[in-house]
Design goal:
The chain is α/β, with parallel strands linked by helices. It is built from six helices and eight strands, in the order H-H-E-H-H-E-E-E-E-E-E-E-H-H. Strands 1, 2, 5, 6, 7 and 8 form a six-stranded mixed beta sheet that branches. Strands 3-4 form a two-stranded antiparallel sheet. The N and C termini lie far apart (48 Å).
């Protein structure tokens, strides 16, 4: 989990803050008109735990190879954006070209983008990442291995270099069944035993449920605000 937290900090370099102005999320989207949704799939990394105080016997044997998400995973980009539009009863969310955003640096296969150079100051960002976990298995004395795939949605507003997170929500975390090995394994073991595409169905189930709740909450806020303005 420490690695996931570190990645989140590096990706967004900001503390969640609610932007002032009194507008609901849907009002902000409609006010801007076309609002870009950028979707990034961060390569799956090896996360056996920190060396200091870790319960993982593989903490000092971390490998640097990463696994890219498949085209079948990335095909869900359009589905996610369509679902956000449909559930919030708008049409303003459009897919953004993340390749047009300058990259500040790369770390462990992860690109740190310069969001101050994004096309518009207000946009949405969906981040899907992954990690191969390895921890001690007390029952066998071996290693417990698994795959985690967390996803997150954020609506962000830039003020120069300053980033304000207007709204955010988890889109769920896929956690595979654990598999035990006698010793620390390499990238080939994880690719063979934890194929990414085996978890697409759960990934879709997770983000569908999360978007339903997120959209329902914000649509309710929007309709309430519109009702007040009509009085």
């Amino acid at each position: 989990m420490k690695k996931i937290i570190l990645i989140t900090i590096l990706l967004f370099l900001a503390v969640p803050l609610t932007k002032a102005g009194g507008l609901t999320l849907i009002e902000k989207i409609l006010k801007q008109g076309e609002t870009k949704v950028y979707v990034q799939f961060v390569p799956v990394i090896h996360d056996p735990g920190a060396v200091g105080g870790s319960t993982s016997p593989c903490a000092s044997k971390k490998f640097d190879e990463v696994t890219e998400f498949t085209s079948d995973f990335k095909a869900h980009t359009d589905k996610i954006i369509k679902m956000l539009n449909d559930r919030m009863e708008i049409e303003a969310l459009k897919k953004g070209d993340i390749t047009a955003v300058p990259v500040k640096k790369e770390m462990n296969g992860m690109k740190i983008y310069d969001w101050s150079k994004a096309e518009d100051p207000f946009f949405a960002l969906v981040t899907v990442s992954g990690s191969y976990k390895a921890s001690a298995d007390p029952s066998s004395g071996g290693v417990e291995n698994s795959l985690w795939i967390p996803a997150q949605l954020q609506f962000i507003e830039m003020d120069g270099e300053k980033m304000d997170i207007v709204e955010q929500t988890s889109l769920g975390t896929v956690i595979s069944a654990k598999k035990t090995s006698k010793s620390c394994e390499g990238i080939d073991y994880f690719k063979e035993n934890f194929p990414l595409d085996d978890h697409i169905e759960k990934f879709e189930e997770n983000y569908t449920n999360k978007i339903e709740r997120f959209a329902k909450k914000h649509l309710k806020k929007y309709k309430k605000a519109m009702k007040k303005k009509k009085k």
